[in-house]
């Protein structure tokens, strides 16, 4: 570690702000010794370990450390680990430089469509294939792997090929090196989160479910698998193809001091750079995270704070943006917006946490998942609990995050676009939550222009059809086309490979007498909705989808102006 060397020199070492190259940092910069992560993985003998931490808490840096330690290279990297925690045990030292390593990061896999995201994933995969070129030129390489490598090089990047890629690369390296590879997948959930907020989450989930299990399911070609990300979305089955992967989240004691800085490390850092008296200021601004049983400082902010001449400010604001968090916050219901705002005013509150963060489509509308999301992404910390019922006390970790919350989250909620209603409405529709669908549609009408007060069925039909276009990636949307024995107003058939229910919408606008009482209006709307729902069955609008084995949600909608009734 460079700390000891710095005390012998009149000049402090450089700070690795924005540098995730572990070998370079270890050799030339100040760094904290986090090699206990390696020791812990070796001692636990896990086949697959998954670490979830907020952004900028050293996940990529830790993965590059693992790569430097385990990878078999022409020139030994053993000298970089001498004097570190992992070097204290002979059996751990024996593992250094012993294995081929697959290292893939998906942090930049983003695009306007799933096809664009998949191409970026393909680029990352091909780069790793190219890095291991010698394995495919080896006489020990099976022809299947050699042929597959050629396919990637000539752009044969079909979904099935890409889903098999990790397994084929692992098998090729195992055959060439006679050692099972260590597989490191950094930011596995980045493209999944991005896809979830841009309308093609199901395709991303299905891809990664098959991609990860192809190499790490049974350990045949995997000595150790390590996966990092921000979130664990277990209910979606992303990790269901793996045999008992061990997940270490912000709630777990194990490895709790391996990401971020402990107070001991921060005190040593401040002393190295000549200002040990700054500990209280640093603590107030950047401490307060609690991972398992460890009190943790934000490493990104601490490095910038010291590098910027010990100037306290919200360094995390410009780097901690998360598409999923932003999407969730922009779509909150008025009630949940008030709840979040109240927490900010009181600085602390009790909430029930969800053990996992899924399914994605319900995150925006589930209070338990919202709080868990904010804890996992670093916006909130758990000060006590959770108890047997999942209830915990939540608070802001420090002054920096409170500032970020005020300047970013609350400001974002205040400028919510009308698109929030569209997202809530389409999610409620595809999840089968009839009452939430009705309420979301009514909220949209109430928040829109007054001419909805006199809108007729054709106008309402066109409006609803336009809203359903938000689901175009997942559904084939049909309007007034022959189905069964008639023409349903709107029919939505899941696209091939999409595991969502079909949807049939039938609309009716009853005549409302002048000066009708509220009770009378509600009765007429319910009657219209019921008749619309009965028509779906009578005319067999869903017959084709049901014959294909698709489950179908059927909604009859009665409306008048800004009032909506729904029969399911």
Instruction: State the CATH class of the largest domain.
Output: Alpha Beta
How far do the termini sit from each other?
65 Å
Strand line-up of the largest beta sheet: 2-3-4-1-5
Relative strand content = 5-15%
Structural class: alpha/beta
* Beta strand count: 15
CATH architecture of the largest domain: 3-Layer(aba) Sandwich
The domain tally reads 3
CATH fold assignment of the largest domain = Rossmann fold
Into which percent range does the helicity of residues fall? 40-55%
The largest pleated sheet is described as:
5 strands, parallel
Task: Note the overall shape.
Answer: flat
Whole-angstrom Rg = 27 Å
Mean pLDDT over the residues: 82
Number of helices: 24
Low-confidence stretches: 4-9, 449-455
Report what the structure shows:
This protein has helices at 2-8, 22-28, 36-44, 59-70, 90-93, 114-131, 133-137, 143-153, 159-177, 190-196, 201-216, 263-272, 279-286, 299-307, 323-330, 334-346, 360-363, 367-376, 399-414, 419-431, 434-447, 457-468, 518-538, 543-547, and strands spanning 48-52, 101-105, 182-186, 224-229, 246-248, 289-291, 294-296, 348-352, 381-384, 391-395, 475-479, 490-494, 502-508, 552-560, 563-567. The chain has a five-stranded parallel sheet with strand order 2-3-4-1-5. A five-stranded mixed sheet has the order 11-12-13-14-15. With 568 residues, the protein is α/β, with parallel strands linked by helices. β12 (490-494) and β13 (502-508) form a beta hairpin. It is flat. α6 (114-131) runs parallel beside α9 (159-177). It contains 24 helices and 15 strands. The protein has three domains: 32-248, Rossmann fold; 323-414, no CATH class; 419-567, no CATH class. Helices cover 45% and strands 13% of the residues.
């Amino acid at each position: 570690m460079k700390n000891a060397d710095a005390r012998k020199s009149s000049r402090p070492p450089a700070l690795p702000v924005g540098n995730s190259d572990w070998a370079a940092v270890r050799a030339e910069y100040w760094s904290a010794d986090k090699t206990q992560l390696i020791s812990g993985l070796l001692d636990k003998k896990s086949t697959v370990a998954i670490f979830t931490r907020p952004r900028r808490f050293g996940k990529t840096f830790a993965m590059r450390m693992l790569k430097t330690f385990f990878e078999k290279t022409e020139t030994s990297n053993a000298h970089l680990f001498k004097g570190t925690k992992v070097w204290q045990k002979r059996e751990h030292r024996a593992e250094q430089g012993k294995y081929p390593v697959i290292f893939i990061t998906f942090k930049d896999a983003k695009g306007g469509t799933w096809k664009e995201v998949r191409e970026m994933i393909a680029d990352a995969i091909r780069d790793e294939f190219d890095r291991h070129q010698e394995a495919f030129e080896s006489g020990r390489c099976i022809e299947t792997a050699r042929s597959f490598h050629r396919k990637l090089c000539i752009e044969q990047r079909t979904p099935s090929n890409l889903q098999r890629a990790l397994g084929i690369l692992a098998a090729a390296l195992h055959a060439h090196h006679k050692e099972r590879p260590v597989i490191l997948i950094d930011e596995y959930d980045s493209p999944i989160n991005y896809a979830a907020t841009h309308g093609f989450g199901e395709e991303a989930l299905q891809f990664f479910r098959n991609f990860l299990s192809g190499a790490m399911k049974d350990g045949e070609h995997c000595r150790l698998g390590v996966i990092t990300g921000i979130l664990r979305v277990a209910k979606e089955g992303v990790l269901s193809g793996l045999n008992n992967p061990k997940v270490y989240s912000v709630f777990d004691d194990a490895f709790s001091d391996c990401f971020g800085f402990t107070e001991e490390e921060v005190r040593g850092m401040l002393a190295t750079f000549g200002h040990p008296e700054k500990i209280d200021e640093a603590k107030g601004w950047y401490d307060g995270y609690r991972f398992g049983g460890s009190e943790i400082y934000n490493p990104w902010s601490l490095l910038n704070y010291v590098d910027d001449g010990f100037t306290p400010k919200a360094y995390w604001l410009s780097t901690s943006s998360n598409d999923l968090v932003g999407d969730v916050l922009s779509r909150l219901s008025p009630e949940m917006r008030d709840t979040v705002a109240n927490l900010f005013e009181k600085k602390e509150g009790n909430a029930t946490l969800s053990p996992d963060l899924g399914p994605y489509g319900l995150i925006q509308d589930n209070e338990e998942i919202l709080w868990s999301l904010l804890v996992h992404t670093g916006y909130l910390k758990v000060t006590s609990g959770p108890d047997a019922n999942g209830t915990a006390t939540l608070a802001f970790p420090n002054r920096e995050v409170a500032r970020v919350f005020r300047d970013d989250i609350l400001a974002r909620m205040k400028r919510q676009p009308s698109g929030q209603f569209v997202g809530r409405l389409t999610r409620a529709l595809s999840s089968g939550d009839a009452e939430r669908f009705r309420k979301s549609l009514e909220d949209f009408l109430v928040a829109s222009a007054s001419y909805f007060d006199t809108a007729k069925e054709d106008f309402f039909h066109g409006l609803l059809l336009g809203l359903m276009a938000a689901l175009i990636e997942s559904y084939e949307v049909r309007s007034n086309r022959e189905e069964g024995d008639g023409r349903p107003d709107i029919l939505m058939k899941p696209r091939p490979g999409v595991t969502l229910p079909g949807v049939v919408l039938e609309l009716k606008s009853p005549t409302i007498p002048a000066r009708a009482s509220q009770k009378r209006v509600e009765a007429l709307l319910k009657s219209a909705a019921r008749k619309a729902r009965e028509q779906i069955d009578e005319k067999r609008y869903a017959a084709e989808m049901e014959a294909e084995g698709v489950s179908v949600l059927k909604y009859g909608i009665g409306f008048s102006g800004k009032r909506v009734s729904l029969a399911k």
